[in-house]
């Protein structure tokens, strides 16, 4: 099989294994961060408190795999637009998700593994709303240097005709116009719990500066700093037009989110992403439907789309007490995830699962799914003088069905993290395939 694969597959695999040099130019990264008024402080913050935010090298992926991920994403978008699908997912979603705004929701994150030999094809692991890191990755991609001849021959001079920052700003403006037409967008609030303590706080600052460069007042705040009064959302005496929602309270059901929830339901502010987007795309139970060919056929999904989804999404099933014995017997081939999970929290590889934790999954109040295990591909790097193998997770940042940016995360351990020396966000270099 490998002998018949296009050159780009084997080349990507070889470069990920053999090209262990450092491509990140940290001085160039500091210059990119320095374009912000407080860029030096951001650089110092990242170096001191987030040393594993950025990996030292890029990841190589075949152009065919990049294109196939986009086709899988397009297939999911087609299904997600069906009334029958929406009725199905809203049946188990929180009531707030039934409120359907015209705004689509910014920064869907479609996360993929390629499989251990890099030749098995992309497999969608999960979809996330409010996927973080897009703006950080845009800066990171511009801070790369060719570290060897094999890379120098392929390193693009830019990310394309339309820099990601332009795409991101156009996305927020599209969200605003979908709800408010030609009215002026004056104020954006970037909202998260205790934002300065969030690991991706530097990105909040960068987004605030991006909005300000486009003449929009921006502030970063905790949801408890917001108030709903007089038919509008306020932060102190500032009326908020749009909320860039970074909360993981996806249903806005926590007491701290009360004002934001009221504004969302009343249309008093444009909130993006929002509970409806999470219910439509990011609830892990949706993957059960997307990997059920009989259900998809009943919904009228065409055969080609069904085949693409079956090949591109690992089979996912609901976890129930009735299936406990059978799931335990197959646990080594499964990955267990909470339906409303994010950031790998409370997610477990079946082969690492203890009986005690398994019983908690089965009997607990939360909803879990079990997904066929797809081990990630790997990237070998030299860290502290030693050659180490990093796992690769590929993220597609998507808006309105369009892939804006493809990036990677490198890590070691059971689940993705930013604790691995030499790991973190990494740019993706797509290798063109011969046609």
The CATH class of the largest domain turns out to be Alpha Beta
Number of helical segments?
A: 16
Radius of gyration: 22 Å
Question: Are there runs of 5+ residues with pLDDT below 50, and where?
Answer: 1-5, 156-161
Give the termini separation.
18 Å
- Under CATH, the homologous superfamily of the largest domain reads Glutathione synthase, substrate-binding domain superfamily, eukaryotic
CATH topology descriptor of the largest domain = Rossmann fold
- Tally of domains: 2
Secondary-structure blueprint of this entry?
Layout: H1 7-18, H2 26-34, H3 39-49, E1 59-62, H4 63-80, H5 83-90, E2 108-113, E3 123-128, H6 134-141, H7 149-152, H8 164-180, E4 187-191, H9 201-213, E5 217-221, E6 226-229, E7 232-235, E8 238-240, E9 242-245, H10 258-266, E10 270-272, H11 275-282, H12 286-290, H13 293-298, H14 303-312, E11 316-318, H15 324-329, E12 334-338, E13 348-349, H16 355-363, E14 368-372, E15 378-383, E16 386-399, E17 402-411, E18 424-431
Parallel strand pairs: 1-18, 4-5, 4-9, 9-10
Antiparallel strand pairs: 2-3, 2-16, 6-7, 7-8, 11-14, 12-13, 12-14, 15-16, 16-17, 17-18
């Amino acid at each position: 099989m490998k002998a018949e694969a296009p050159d780009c597959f084997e080349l990507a695999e070889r470069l990920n294994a053999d090209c262990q040099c450092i491509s990140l130019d940290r001085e160039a990264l500091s210059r990119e961060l320095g374009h912000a008024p407080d860029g030096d402080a951001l650089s110092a913050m990242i170096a001191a408190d987030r040393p594993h935010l950025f990996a030292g090298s890029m990841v190589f992926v075949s152009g065919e795999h990049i294109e196939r991920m986009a086709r899988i994403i397009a297939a999911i978008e087609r299904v997600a637009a069906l009334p029958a699908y929406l009725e199905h997912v809203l049946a188990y979603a929180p009531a707030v998700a039934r409120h359907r705004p015209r705004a689509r929701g910014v920064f869907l994150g479609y996360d993929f593994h390629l499989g251990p030999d890099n030749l098995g094809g992309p497999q969608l692991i999960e979809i996330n709303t409010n996927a973080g890191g897009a703006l950080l990755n845009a800066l990171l991609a511009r801070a790369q240097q060719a570290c060897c001849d094999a890379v120098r021959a392929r390193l693009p001079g830019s990310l394309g005709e339309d820099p990601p920052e332009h795409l991101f700003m156009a996305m927020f403006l599209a969200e605003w116009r979908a709800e408010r037409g030609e009215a002026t967008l004056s104020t954006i609030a970037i909202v998260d719990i205790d934002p300065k303590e969030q690991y991706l706080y530097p990105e909040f600052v960068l987004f605030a500066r991006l909005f300000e460069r486009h003449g929009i007042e921006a502030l970063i705040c905790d949801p408890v700093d917001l108030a709903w009064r007089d038919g509008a959302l306020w932060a102190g005496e500032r009326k908020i037009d749009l909320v860039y929602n970074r909360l993981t309270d996806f249903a806005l059901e926590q007491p701290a989110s009360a004002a934001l929830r009221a504004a969302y339901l009343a249309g008093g502010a444009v909130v993006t992403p929002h509970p409806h987007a999470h219910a439509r795309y990011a609830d892990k139970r949706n993957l059960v439907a997307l990997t059920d060919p009989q259900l998809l056929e009943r919904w009228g999904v065409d055969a080609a789309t069904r085949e693409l989804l079956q090949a591109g999404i690992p089979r996912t099933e609901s976890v129930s007490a009735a299936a406990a014995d059978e799931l335990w017997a197959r646990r080594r081939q499964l990955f267990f995830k909470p339906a409303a999970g994010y950031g790998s929290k409370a997610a477990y590889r079946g082969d690492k699962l203890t009986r005690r934790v398994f019983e908690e999954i089965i009997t607990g109040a939360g909803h879990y799914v079990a997904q066929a295990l797809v081990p990630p591909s790997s990237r070998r790097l030299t860290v502290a003088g030693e050659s180490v193998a990093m796992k690769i997770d590929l993220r597609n940042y998507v808006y309105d069905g369009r892939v804006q940016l493809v990036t990677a995360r490198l890590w070691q351990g059971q689940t993705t993290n930013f604790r691995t020396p030499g790991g973190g966000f990494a740019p993706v270099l797509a290798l063109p395939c011969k046609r």
